[in-house]
Amino acid sequence: MWITRFADVPVKIVYSNNIHISPEQRLPCLMNDDSTSAISGYAEIVHYLSQQGYNVGELGAETIALIANLDRATTLTYWTLFCNKENYETITRPQISQAIAFPMQYNVAMKLQKDAAERCASEGIKHSKKPPKEKGLNKTHTDALAADRNRKAMVSMSQETMQILTLGEKVYQLCSRMLGQEPDPARFLLMANIYLQTLPGLPQRPLETVISKYDALKTEIPSLEFTNIVEPGPSEYNLSNWLASWTPWTPWTLG
């Protein structure tokens, strides 16, 4: 939303999780009035708006490279919201429950967690899950195994968090070097990711320590009033599409 407001683009912003409105099944998606053409993906939309003469800021090779780097920042956001168990149970799952009716919310939540784990795996971060409880053992053996599992889980979670912090260091160190002083498409995408990774309500915000190290990343998140935001109409999503996909951006910022 920030980029369209900044560039004064006359658009109607529709909150929708329906990836099927996009030929490439990617959000966000920019469509013309009669829905005959669509531009999918943040970078692609920014490039299109620039070609149409809108002032979206500097769109040189460095900005484009920075936007590509910020795709890794989006992976960090996925981990923060879906792979971090405490964050998921405290913030993300309740948001899903509010956004999607019972019982579809369970399928959607599972899909989102799976997508987040796969995205993290692509960066070499293996998301740990609690192993199933063993059967056919007496209580003493079961308790001993449970204690051992808990110790291993804590070690695994610690290693996973360290991997996240290492990736965050790489991503945000590069961002701090490449960011310009003026608002541009890369800065807006960066703000969206930082906003989600440092939500005040999140019980765990490990990336906050990384982000706070760089003065270039300390930017005020603009609070914008939009009068052109509408609820999706019947043609823009339906029950099966809600079940099929739901992006993590919708409850908090632009999807």
From TrEMBL:
<feature type="region of interest" description="Disordered">
    <location>
        <begin position="121"/>
        <end position="140"/>
    </location>
</feature>
<feature type="domain" description="Mitochondrial outer membrane transport complex Sam37/metaxin N-terminal">
    <location>
        <begin position="1"/>
        <end position="112"/>
    </location>
</feature>
<dbReference type="Pfam" id="PF10568">
    <property type="entry name" value="Tom37"/>
</dbReference>
<keyword id="KW-0653">Protein transport</keyword>
<dbReference type="InterPro" id="IPR050931">
    <property type="entry name" value="Mito_Protein_Transport_Metaxin"/>
</dbReference>
<keyword id="KW-0813">Transport</keyword>
<keyword id="KW-0472">Membrane</keyword>
<dbReference type="GO" id="GO:0015031">
    <property type="term" value="P:protein transport"/>
</dbReference>
<protein>
    <submittedName>
        <fullName>Sorting assembly machinery subunit</fullName>
    </submittedName>
</protein>
<keyword id="KW-0496">Mitochondrion</keyword>
<dbReference type="GO" id="GO:0007005">
    <property type="term" value="P:mitochondrion organization"/>
</dbReference>
<dbReference type="InterPro" id="IPR019564">
    <property type="entry name" value="Sam37/metaxin_N"/>
</dbReference>
<keyword id="KW-1000">Mitochondrion outer membrane</keyword>
<dbReference type="GO" id="GO:0001401">
    <property type="term" value="C:SAM complex"/>
</dbReference>
